[in-house]
Amino acid sequence: MVIEKRQIVIPGETLVSGNEYLPGDGAYRDGGDVVAGRYGIMNIFEKHVRVIPVSGAYYPRRGNTIIGTIVDITFNGWLIDFGGAQNAFLPVAEVPRYINRNEMREYLDFGEAVVVKVWDVKSRGVDLSMKMRGFGKIEGGMIISVSPNKVPRIIGKEGSMVKMIKDATGCSITVGQNGKVWISGNDSDKELATKKIIEFIVAHATITGLTEKVEKFIKKLGLKVNSPEIIAENTDGESEQNVGEDNE
Amino acid sequence: MAVKKNLYTKRESGRAMDEVRPMTAKVGVVPSADGSAIFETGKTKAIAVVRGPRTLHPQHMQNPKNGVLRVNYGMMPFSVEDRIRPGPNRRSEEISKVTEWALSSVVDLSEFPNTVVDVFIQIPQADAGTRVAGINAAAMALAHAGIPMKEMVSAIGVGKIDKSLVVDLDKYEDSLFHDGEGSTDIPMVFTSRTKNLALLQLDGKISIPEFKETIELAKKACEKILVVQMEALKNVNGENGAPKGVPLEGNNG
Description:
The complex is a heterodimer of chains A (248) and B (253). In chain A, α4 packs antiparallel against α5 (210-220). Chain A folds into three domains: 8-53, CATH 2.40.50.100; 65-137, CATH 2.40.50.140; 142-246, Ribosomal Protein S8, Chain: A, domain 1 (2-Layer Sandwich). Helices cover 25% and strands 30% of the residues of chain A. Chain A has a five-stranded mixed β-barrel. In chain A, β11 (113-121) and β12 form a beta hairpin. With 248 residues, chain A is an alpha+beta fold. Chain B is α+β, with helices and mostly antiparallel strands and 253 residues long. Chain B is built from four helices and nine strands, in the order ββββαβαββαββα. In chain B, α1 (90-104) crosses α2 (130-144) and α2 packs parallel to α4 (208-234). Chain B has helices spanning 90-104, 130-144, 171-176, 208-234; strands at 23-27, 35-41, 44-55, 68-75, 115-125, 153-161, 164-167, 183-191, 197-200. Chain B is globular. In chain B, a hairpin with a 7-residue loop joins β1 and β2. The A-B interface holds A 6-8, 10-13, 26, 28, 30, 35, 37-41, 53-57, 59, 85-87, 123-124, 147, 149-153, 205-208, 236, 239-240, 243 and B 28, 34-35, 52-55, 64, 67, 106, 108, 111-115, 143-152, 191-193, 229-230, 233-234, 236-238, 242-249, 252-253.
C-alpha cells in the first residue's frame, strides 16, 4: 500500500505510530512513534517515513549536480566552494583528461566555475567528480543564485519547466542543486530573458498552475512557447514529487 | 510573627495569575537568512536569525565530532526607555550562553562536524521576559533553517510577586514591584515532546513547595506557547515566510 500524504511537520511532532514504519531522513524513532527530527514536509512511501526540508541551507547529497567556484588548489586536486557548510574537493583523478600536476592552474584556475557531481558526502567534506557528460568548466554565460529549495520548481516535472525555458529562449540552462543556475546563450538579451524567467519562477514558486503563469510571462517577454502539452500536466500535486525526487 | 497580608492579589496588567500575555509569531522575517523568526509577547519583541551550518573560523574552535551552536543575544539601543549601550555586556553574554545551553539540548549538529550554526537574537522592544522570548524565537528560527532538532523548545518566565505566583512577568512585575517580599523571576525552558526542563534560572527567593508549583505553571504556559510556535511554522504561506518552493495544501487557491 502506498500512502502519499503531504503536511508540514515540526521537530518533535509524532508523524505516525506503529512499529511497522521505518524512520528515514529527518525522522527518528521514539518508542512506538516515528518523530520528525527536522522541519519540513512529511512524506510516507511504503512504510518509509521521511521529512523533506522546505527551507534553510543546501545540504549536498550523493548524485547532486552542483555549480561551484575554485577557491584553492592543492597538490592533488581543487577545493570548490558551492555555498554549503564545507568545501568540496575535486581530485585530479576525477577530471576527464590528463592533468600535469605542475600546471593545474592551466586547467582550472582560482575563481573559475565548474559544474560537478557530488560523488560522496563524508563527515569531513564532500568529494566531487567531473567524469561524466554535462560536467566541466563553465565558460561564458552567467551564473545566478536562487534559493536551493526552489530548484525543483525551476526544473519542473521531469525537467519540463527547464525544457520550456530552453525552447523559448534558445539558451542552455544548467541548474545546480545548490541553487546556482548557469545560463549560456549566443545572445546576451536571450540570457537576460532567461534570467528574468527564472527569477519569476522563484518569486512565484508557491503558487499553483505555475507553468501557465510562466508561459504567460514568457509570451509577455516576446518569446514563443512551443510545447503546450506539458502545461496541463504540471499541477500542484505533481510538483510535490519533484521535491521528493530531487532530494533522493 | 503575624502573617502579613499578600500585597499582590490582582495583577497590574489585569491578567489572571496564570495568564500569558497575548502572543504572535512569524517565521521567515529575514528572507536572506537560512532561517528567521519573530516572537512577540505583549510589548516584548524578539527577532532570531539563523545562519549556517557554515565553516567555523578560527579553525581551533572547530569540533570534528559535532557542529558548534553559537548564540548571540543583544538588546537594541532603543529597546527600553533609557538607551542601552550597544555591544556585548555582562548580561547579554550570560543570556547568550544560557540560550545556547538550552537550545543545545534539542539541536543535533552531529551531521555537520567542523561547522557552526549561528543564532542571532535581537530585542527591538523589551518589556521583561526578553530571554524567554528570544529562546522561543530562536527555536522557531532553527526549525525554519532546517537544522536537525529532536524537538522544539518553549520558554516562559514565571515568578512570585509578594506572595502570589504569576506567569509571564511583565516589566512592572519584574522590576518595578518592590513591596512585601518583592518579586522573584524564574525563566524556564521546556522541550516540546519529552517535557524536559532545558533551562532554569532563579532570581530571588522562593520556598520549595511554591517552586514546585511554578514548574507546573510554567509547563502549562509552555503548552500554549508551543501552539503559537507551531501555528507560525505550519501556516507559512505565500509571503516571504513560505517554505521555499513548495505549494501548501488548501491555502493557495
